[in-house]
Specification:
- The protein has a single domain, classed as 2-Layer Sandwich (Alpha-Beta Plaits).
- About 30% of the residues lie in helices and about 35% in strands.
- The chain has a 4-stranded antiparallel β-sheet.
- It is globular and about 35 Å long.
- The mean pLDDT is about 95.
Length: about 80
């Protein structure tokens, strides 16, 4: 399975609690699409959010966000893990 980093450039009104809630919603939906959301990072000041996800495709990763909470990423980048 491929590893992706998705980027949300500006989520208006972003809060720590809101990001945690969205992540929990992703976890509830992800199996339906064969996806595994692993980690996320965020900056409340800029509204940026980054999600690390294992998925069979970019489309599958996006489908989870779309169904779970509607906050679809602006960009989804395939990445390789390093140390």
């Amino acid at each position: 399975m491929a590893l992706y980093l998705d980027v949300h450039n500006k989520i208006e009104g972003l809060t720590k609690e809101g990001v945690a809630d969205a992540h929990e919603k992703d976890l509830r939906v992800q199996r339906k699409y064969g996806v595994n959301y692993l980690k996320y990072w965020f900056d409340v000041g800029t509204g940026k959010v980054f999600c690390l996800v294992e998925a069979p495709s970019k489309e599958a990763a996006a489908a989870v966000h779309r169904e779970a909470h509607g906050l679809v990423a602006d960009e989804i980048i395939e990445v390789n893990e390093g140390s």
